[in-house]
Design goal:
The structure holds 2 protein chains of 2 kinds.
Chain A (H helix, E strand, L loop, with lengths): L7 H9 L5 H19 L2 E4 L1 H16 L11 E5 L26 H8 L3 E6 L33 H8 L5 E6 L5 H7 L2 E4 L19 E6 L2 H11 L29 E5 L9 H16 L3 E5 L4 H19 L17 H12 L2 H14 L4 H25 L2 E5 L15 H6 L5 H5 L4 E8 L5 E8 L4 H18 L5
Parallel strand pairs in A: 2-3, 2-4, 7-8, 7-9
Antiparallel strand pairs in A: 1-3, 4-6, 5-6, 5-10, 9-11, 10-11
Helix pairs in contact in A: 2-3, 5-6, 7-15, 9-11, 9-12
Chain B lengths: L4 E12 L38 H13 L3 E2 L2 E2 L2 E4 L9 E4 L6 E10 L2 E14 L3 E5 L4 E5 L6 E7 L6 H18 L11 E11 L9 E4 L4 H20 L7 E6 L4 E7 L9 E2 L6 E2 L2 H10 L4 H11 L4 H8 L2 H12 L4 H19 L10 H12 L5 H14 L3 H8 L7 H14 L1 H8 L4 H13 L6 H11 L1
Parallel strand pairs in B: 12-13
Antiparallel strand pairs in B: 1-10, 1-11, 2-6, 3-16, 4-5, 4-15, 6-7, 7-10, 8-9, 11-12, 13-14
The chains are: A alpha/beta, B alpha+beta.
């Protein structure tokens, strides 16, 4: 049995059946990390010894029959912007280089309750600001499919760790595509649930009204299982929603007959790589061939999503990141007097992309500009939501690419931030409208770099998305080359 | 002064709400705990923590708004006020700018010219900041976040007041209403009520307002009255000498009885207010509003009316007793225990007020229980103790809320009602004071008083003076 190639659910089954143990699985992961981490740099912190100790404790609870769930004993990685009690949480920033939280994020606790075992914390763009995992203060992460390329971002460490088999699944966060785009670049499954489905308690906020935590994993089945585990109504998060329909695994049914799929023409225009376009449209064909009703339509307003997103996310970020001031925790620069200390700490502690967004956000909120920028962006957000509402009156889900290209080479993107921002075009509206979106692999380009298929659903329709994604994944596996 | 001026005053009053826990987390609001012991990730601004609104804060804010005749905003929001300061752990304060909970209210105050309405512009909810403590010895500043997240409401008046008396009347009225609601104890000295005074002057009859200043650090009604007077004169002096009033924030120094500029409008920070995305808009349902309305207490005017009808008390007594919700509560509870209203009133009006004044305390600080006051009144009525002893016992009860029955028993203060013992003592006093006896028999009435005094002394005060009188007359 090739342990590391198992999915999370397969591994948990093998452990339950006594074919392997949580400790063996963890040891295998740690060995793999030792081998390949120097090349990929997926993790900021590998908590090796404690991870083994945790695996031993979980193994005992599995053997005693206390833990029986589909994630019991499975080693997991957690993005470094999710608080983990007693374990360094840096957000890939120098300013939190010494920050050890006193509590764990609700999503992490839910997974630990289910018996998943924490390995360590994955690399990311600093404070989740970036699309390549190159803005990390702890070095860039490389794409395991081709280490000359980026893994995407901001949850690039999580996506890469799954792709490199340095974990069995990982948690990421998605503010404008930060789960779906790296999933696309690394050829793994990634999902952003409906806003409010997963508690944000313990997620270090970037754009609070857009942030959602979600899984990065190997299969749609794993995705459903993880989402079912982390979805919870949390009284500690006012934006958390009480849902009765979080039995996501019930949607793992191979059937798309009659499913109404809309393909927005706006997503297939200028700027889309032809190879990506072909792969995504072939995926649509495969679903159509199996009974889905596929139709093109005009979504509209797509061009306005990026400026609206960068206005709102930056505004919220500029305020959310004010607490990093050197007073209470984190990095503090030596300086004379309070104001010098603030200035030096924040100048030295934050990287250039974070500073750019703090400045942008402070600007759009400042008096005299608030109405022209921030309020206008909120109005655009409402209009985008309306455009999706109209689309979902006709379609069950929307199909398109997750990113305009496959993974760019390291160093290519940061030179031109505007171009990097434009790369978020297919993922960003989903966050603005609070919708669920999933990305599943649908092929590779001529260089062997993965291409992802994005399916977008109406709010609270994760099950429909999971069913469509699961069906596509199964058809692709069976049909072999039909789609490539 | 060549021209006649009019003063225009508006107030911003911060009131600390009497909730058990903070506005956005479950930490205690209790005063006087050791530094940073009432804190958690939320009120210390830890990364990843999130605020959740304490519903009790909303209830109090709505109750105050209704009592001040405000419109309640049915869908209100919280906004972030961004500024860097170490007492503010997130470097933004969660407050309300765009959609405050209450708007457009009024209160009525009494003025020499009759009743006057003062408009309430708005009331909003917000969180308090922590406290900075400068350690001179170490030359370091320490921060205590126990106060961080304590709920406040800010009541912003319209610029409707014209002098210090009106300002004080307005504040007294606010304080009374809020105390009656139980929403706060409103102690200026302890900072549970704080007032900033916005003041400008203009020529009488002018339509436009003058340039205003904002006065901070006013810790007592006295300071507020003086600051209003001082600032009015300062502004008039400026105008009279042809200078301009600068729009600025000033700090009152009560010791020097003067103010100095803290910052001008030009230095004003841009707070970059925007709706807090961590808190969902608060929807006020009809049921919620109805429930708060139903729970509104009897306010002072109604209470005074009822007292006039129910208890046979002079208006003066009613006025004093109802001027404090706490005192009125004690009055009513004591009466409910069977004490006669006028007797209860007397204890409150005379001895209680005297002792409060002596201790420099407010009626809100009264510690004795209605049960104990009722017991004391009963002991006195049953002539178990005489009035001198009753006052002594009351003083102890006022300080320590002792049970008067137990106290009188323990200290052996009960009157001697044993006629035989009293008769024996009177006989001894008569035998020991032949001169006075002679004087009395010669018609000197005063001599009887002396003999009564001697008897009381011999009885260590534990005799009923009326019985002593009667026995003396009988035996002489």
């Amino acid at each position: 049995m090739e342990l590391l190639s198992l999915s999370a659910v397969e591994l948990a089954t093998a452990i339950k059946e006594g074919k392997t143990t949580a400790v063996e699985a963890m040891q295998a992961v740690l060995d793999k990390i030792r081998q390949s981490e120097e090349l990929y740099n997926c993790y900021v912190t590998v908590d090796g010894e404690n991870a083994l100790r945790r695996a031993q404790a979980v193994q005992r609870r599995i053997e005693s029959g206390e833990l029986t769930g589909p994630l019991a004993g499975v080693p997991m990685a957690v993005k470094d912007n999710l608080c983990t009690e007693g374990l360094l949480t840096t957000c890939a920033s120098k300013i939190l280089s010494n920050f050890v939280p006193t509590f764990s994020a609700e999503a992490v606790l839910n997974l630990e309750k289910a018996g998943a075992v924490l390995i360590g914390k994955t690399n990311m763009d600093e404070f989740a600001m970036g699309s390549t995992t190159e803005t990390s203060a702890y070095g860039a992460t490389k794409n395991p499919r081709n280490p000359e390329h980026v893994p995407g971002g901001s949850s690039g460490g999580s996506a890469a760790a799954v792709a490199a088999e340095e974990c069995f699944f990982a948690l990421g966060s998605d503010t404008g595509g930060s789960i779906r785009q790296p999933a696309s670049f690394c050829g793994v499954v990634g999902m952003k649930p409906t806003y409010g489905t997963v508690s944000r308690y313990g997620l270090v906020a970037y754009g609070s009204s857009l942030d959602q935590i979600g899984p990065l994993c190997k299969t749609v089945e794993d995705c459903a299982v993880i989402l079912e585990t982390i979805a919870s109504h949390d009284e500690k998060d006012s934006t958390s929603v009480e849902r009765q329909d979080t039995d996501f695994t019930s949607a793992l049914v191979k059937e798309v007959k009659g499913l109404r799929i809309g393909i927005p023409r706006d997503y297939f225009g200028e700027g889309l790589d032809p190879e990506v376009k072909t792969a995504v449209l072939q995926a649509a064909e495969l679903l159509k061939a199996n009974g889905a009703l596929v139709e093109e339509f005009d979504l509209s307003l797509v061009d306005y999503a990026i400026p609206a997103y960068y206005t709102i996310a930056a505004a919220e970020a500029s305020s959310n990141l004010e607490r990093f001031d050197g007073i209470k925790y984190g990095y503090r620069a030596e300086a004379e007097g309070l104001h010098q200390m603030y200035k030096k700490t924040r100048s030295q502690g934050f990287g250039p992309e974070v500073k750019r967004r703090i400045m942008l956000g402070s600007f759009v909120l400042s008096s005299g500009y608030y109405d022209a920028y921030y309020l206008k962006a909120l109005r655009v957000k409402a209009m985008i939501k309306k455009a999706f509402d109209d689309a979902f009156a006709k379609y069950d889900c929307i199909l398109g690419p997750a990113a305009p290209t496959t993974a760019p080479k390291l160093g290519e993107s940061l030179a031109d931030p505007i171009k990097m921002y434009l790369g978020d075009i297919y993922t960003i509206s989903v966050n603005l409208a609070g919708l669920p979106g999933i990305c599943v692999p649908c092929g590779t380009d001529g260089r062997g770099l993965p291409i992802g298929l994005q399916l977008i659903g109406d709010c609270f329709r994760e099950k429909q998305l999971l069913q469509a994604a699961y069906t596509y994944e199964q058809l692709r596996k069976e049909g072999g080359k039909a789609d490539v | 002064m060549s021209k006649e001026y009019e003063t225009v005053i508006g107030l911003e009053v911060h009131v600390e709400l009497a909730t058990k826990t903070k506005i956005f987390c479950g930490c205690s609001t209790a005063f006087g705990a050791s530094p940073n012991s009432h804190t958690c990730p939320v009120c210390t601004g830890m990364p990843g923590s999130l605020p959740v609104l304490n519903k009790k804060v909303l209830e109090y804010a709505v109750a105050v708004g209704l009592a001040l005749n405000c419109q309640i905003t049915r869908e209100c929001k919280f906004d972030r006020k961004n500024y860097f300061y170490p007492d503010n752990p997130q470097n933004y304060q969660i407050s309300q700018l765009y959609l405050p909970i209450c708007r457009d209210g009024w209160v009525e105050i009494d003025t020499p010219q009759g009743a006057k309405k003062v408009g309430i512009h708005e009331i909003h909810m917000e969180e308090d900041a922590g406290k900075l403590i400068h350690d001179e010895w170490e030359d370091a500043t320490l921060v205590d976040y126990n106060r961080s997240g304590v709920p406040l409401i800010e009541i912003v008046s319209e610029p409707d007041m014209r002098n210090a008396d009106e300002v004080i009347a307005y504040l007294e009225k606010l304080r009374l209403v809020i105390q009656y609601l139980g929403a706060s104890d409103c102690k200026l000295q302890e900072g549970s009520m704080r007032a900033d005074v916005n003041l400008s002057v203009r020529e009488k009859g002018a339509k436009e307002f003058g340039t205003r200043t904002e006065m901070k650090n006013l810790n007592s009604f006295r300071a507020i009255a003086r600051a209003v007077e001082g600032e009015k004169n300062r502004q008039i002096d400026l105008l009279e000498s042809g200078e301009k009033v600068i729009q600025e924030t000033r700090r009152w120094d009560e010791n020097k009885e003067t103010s100095y500029a803290m910052r001008s409008k030009e230095d004003a920070q841009d707070y970059r207010y925007f709706p807090d995305p961590d808190l969902t808009p608060v929807s006020i349902s009809d049921e919620f509003l109805e429930e708060i309305r139903r729970r509104q207490p009897e306010f002072r005017t109604e209470k005074m009316k009822r007292y006039r009808e129910e208890f046979d008390l002079p208006d003066y007594d009613i006025e004093i007793i109802t001027s404090s919700k706490h005192m009125a509560d004690i009055f009513e509870a004591t009466v409910a225990l069977g004490a006669q209203p006028k007797k209860v009133s007397n204890w409150l009006m005379v001895e209680t007020l005297r002792l409060l004044k002596e201790q420099e305390e407010d009626p809100e600080d009264i510690r004795f229980s209605p049960e104990n006051l009722a017991k004391l009144i009963r002991l006195s009525e049953e002539k178990a103790i005489n009035s001198t002893v009753a006052k002594e016992v009351f003083e102890v009860m006022f300080r320590e809320n002792v049970d008067p029955e137990q106290y009188v028993e323990e200290k052996g203060l009960k009157m001697v009602s044993d006629e035989g013992a009293l008769r024996k003592t009177v006989e001894e006093v008569i035998a020991a004071n032949p001169q006075s006896v002679q004087d009395y028999r010669n018609g000197k009435e005063k001599a009887l008083g002396f003999l009564v005094g001697q008897t009381m002394k011999a009885m260590k005060g534990k005799a009923d003076p009326a019985s002593v009188n009667r026995l003396l007359k009988e035996l002489l």
